Amino acid sequence: MTAMPRRLVMAALPLLLAACGGIGSLGLGGSAPNATQEATRVRGGEVVAVNRYLWAASLDVLDFLPISAIDPYTGVISTGYGTPPGGGRAYRATVHISDPALDARALSVALQTSSGPVSAATARAVEDAILTRARQLRVQDGRL
User: Which of 49, 55, 70, 139 lies at a C-alpha separation of 20 to 30 Å from 76?
Assistant: First the structure.
């Protein structure tokens, strides 16, 4: 690549990234889908909503896992393999938040190791950690 096209690409790159807009709103920075309300979108005449506290808590609790796909409008977070601090086994996770309520029924976590799914007790412990963190975030927000 010659110097002139390279400079042009380098100058246009920030503009292209700015045009993408709202990357933080996707939760890639660990933030909730929307700072003031749940992430909602109309899909096929149906409103889909995601609880922002569960969303943020999921990102907090699973922050040691690299994010591979994320969609706050459908409530899905998929990660690649990562090892928890002090752990020796690598995990990957798929989280689905299916409801705007801060409720255990709105959260589904699937954990897997390279040898297959983890035990139900391990998955339940991660779900409990996410729910606990979500409640802490709600209390901190002062919106009881």
Answer: 139
